[in-house]
Amino acid sequence: MRERVVVAMSGGVDSSVAAAVLLEQGYDVVGITMKLHEDGADVPDKPCCSLDATSDARRVCEQLGVPHYVLNLVDVFTRDVFDDFVSEYAAGRTPIPCVRCNTFTKFRDLVVKADAIDARWIATGHYGRLMDASHGRVLLRGRDPLKDQSYFLWGMPKPVLSRLLLPVGDWTKEETRAAARRFGLRTANKPESMDICFVPHGDHIEVLREHLPADAAALSPGHIVTEDGRVIGEHPGFARFTIGQRKGLPGGVSEPWFVTEIRAETREVVVGPRSALSRNTVGAHQVNWLAPVPEVGAIVQVQVRHRGACVPSTVMRADAHGIDVVLSASVQGVAPGQSLVLYDGDIVLGGGVITRAGRGALPVLAA
Amino acid sequence: MSHPPVYLDHAATTPVREEVLEAMLPWFSARFGNPSSVHRLGREARVALDEARERIAATLGAQHDEVCFTSCGTEGDNFAVLGAWRAARASGRSAVLSTPIEHKAVLAACHQVAREGGTERLVAVTRDGLVDADDFSAQCDAQLAVASVMWVNNEIGVVQDIPALTAHAKACGALMHTDAVQAFGKIDFDMRTLHVDLLTISGHKIGAPKGIGALFIRRGVMLEPLMLGGSQDRGRRAGTENVPYAVGLALACELAVRERETEGAHLLALRDRLEARVREALPDVVIHGAGAPRAPHVTNLSIPGTDAETLLMALDLRGIQASGGSACQSGSVGMSHVLQAMRVAPDIASGALRLSLGCMSNAANVDRAADVLITLARKARGLATV
User: Who among A30, A72, A76 is closest to B334 (CB)?
Assistant: First the structure.
């Protein structure tokens, strides 16, 4: 009896290849495309979907001779991912909806569906790897550092690891494309999608405008101030800014300004010179662990943004509710709302959502 | 898979009957003429088309010139509602009247009426999906151009009292349309005694191919055409006629009418058997519209604690082909507007499955479908849902 695997298929090349590889390996493959948001809202009666991506996934499955289904997860995605995206920006933070989608939509909601059809396994086209360790299965970075997506995967429930398959995690993007061509998949040469799926033109302000009240603070003008409180200009709404951003600020006198802080309560965007971006303490909440929780005082590697540097750091707090680390070297542009991910070599230990970042020693918090 | 698949989606579409296909074939190739051509091939096609029209008219109890070919049920519905309303505009009748449980082809046409400056009226329905006759009659007045009510509901199979509703619409001088796509071949009617002005049928629900239907247009009823161009179909529908499909539709209509009684009794027995089997195992099953008269071929049921999307997927993986509320273009399952209008609780409505019987149904496969459904539903109830 072949083991059944549900492959989450976005219609892109990575998940298409994942499905083809698993079929070749002898799995009973079921392709599933998750419908996460309404498309074509400008068409009368919102005749949902007709997404090209869904059609691509369906055609790949038809070519492979495996079933394909579309699951409507619009309501739960809106609740767990989209609404959070809007409220985080409204609070002056810089959310990563992909993390929450992986945490909730893919690896919680999809797993429930997999159970209902007796699928032992769940697979995606993510660039990450899995390995059996003494304490169970662990998640590793993808082999290709340029494609590694482990930074977005730390939030998945740990029990999912034991039934997860990541068939392309060992490959570079080029190898995946080569496999797609070998399988003759129509998605082989599909361009990479970098945008957040529900932010069509990469302009999150458009999305916020639609979903926040017209007078929302995040979209209302405010002061641009220096760290010593000097007003140097006006901005059209702090949701347009993230920590470390240079675009949209007045020219500096001698050196350029960068956003160092967003103060939602006073609608102030705080700026400083590049040197003012340096942070060596980072704290996070909404924590999840995928490996044994490191002890206080342990040295781990820390990453605070996608493709950011991985910095050796000392754990000051690590439990079910919070993480605090002190970095051995300062990093620039640590934005609340982004993820703090802890690694042991390539192994993802866990992570959390960044709440604060500072300079200097962090007080040791009671465990 | 050890068992052949069980098709329980006849209300979605049916296979083309062999005799229908055979009748159509010559008209694709050897006898391919355009009915408007003056030469021999054209004449031949024209005769075939006229004959097909007459045969369809005969199955309806209509005159041949009252049958207008369409490309599908949706076109028939659009043409009836929009065409009638647009034609009546000049006379000051600006309203259309329909129900919230219509096919989208009618509802969207009514929305279009509203966009073009008309008034869209909807009648209340009962919890069993029956049109409230008092409300219907109260909304029939001198402003009403056309009323449209689906005879047999495509999702729940509930049968409306079309003769009674027609009387109300006619009494106020409005036109009456019914979408009879699911009713044709299931309900006995004759246009000589039934006073509706416009009636839609569709080929692929009765063993003709997808892409052909007909609209009955009573003599004297004026519709503004949707298709403009040549004078085909008396100027009501421009465009070269689909002769092979018209020939196929004619035979499918004749067969459906000829077999109506025996087929109806057969399907009713199967449906009752299916429902009884499910109810025996899962006594809390909700059968939508069960308190109203229903056509024999459709059952729409919810098993509390299950959701249709997951169940349909699990059923398909076991070879049972059914459908949910309203399929959308992506293939995902949306909430049924019909069940919503019937005030079915959302958690029950989201579990609704439509099982529809037809030419491919028999006792053995109905039993198997019921057993698989029962197994899956029991399993689903043991699992958490999203």
Answer: A72
